[in-house]
Design a protein that fits this description.
Helix content: 40-55%
Structural class: alpha+beta
Radius of gyration: 19 Å
Order of helices and strands: EEEHHEEEHEEHEHH
Strand order of the largest sheet: 1-2-3
Strand content: 15-25%
Oligomer: single chain
Number of domains: 2
Number of strands: 9
Distance between the termini: 46 Å
Length: about 170
């Protein structure tokens, strides 16, 4: 799109992950995902992304507060999943079962009679990384619903990406 492609480069996103960027002939840039080009996301994915983005300030606030109140003299906490000491940059905030993010998301939609196909999502244009709801009342609704039900815990990134998923399977 636009005036044509001059080149590509690999950069770090604001999330710290690697991504690709197109540099156009006029010098303007935009990011892109080759995975998304090959396997486009469905509407449900974008609605879920908007929900995650809606609660991200609360999640970050929870993590910072948890570390401030529970860190040891090295600035670390004990991961409840791996039993390893971790620093804030090695941690994730996890939704403890049974109220996983997926569970909360599905029930919010069901309880509110929400059809993902009818929700307008904004974001994703050049220079925009985050999806959000066009209707700000949906944002407020999800934040409230989530915060009333979530049982958050700070865990190691490794534990979050492995052990907690096993725990969930064992729980179900």
């Amino acid at each position: 799109m636009g005036c044509g492609i001059f080149s590509f480069r690999k950069i770090k996103s604001s999330y710290g992950k690697g991504e690709f960027e197109i540099i156009r002939k006029d010098g303007s840039t935009t990011d892109f995902s080759y995975v998304k080009c090959i396997t486009p996301r469905n509407k449900e994915y974008y609605v879920k992304s908007a929900c995650r983005n809606a609660i991200s300030p609360d999640i970050l606030e929870f993590k910072v507060k948890y570390f401030r109140e529970n860190k040891d003299n090295e600035g670390k906490i004990l991961c409840p999943l791996t039993k390893q000491k971790i620093a804030i940059n090695e941690s994730h905030v996890d939704h403890a079962p049974p109220n996983t993010f997926e569970f909360i998301f599905r029930n919010w939609k069901k309880d509110r009679g929400i059809d993902s196909g009818s929700i307008e999502i904004i974001g994703g244009e050049d220079g925009e990384e985050k999806k959000s709801f066009k209707n700000h009342e949906l944002t407020k609704s999800f934040i409230k619903y989530h915060n009333e039900r979530a049982n958050l815990r700070v865990v190691s990134a490794i534990g979050n990406l492995s052990n907690s998923k096993k725990q969930l399977k064992d729980f179900l």
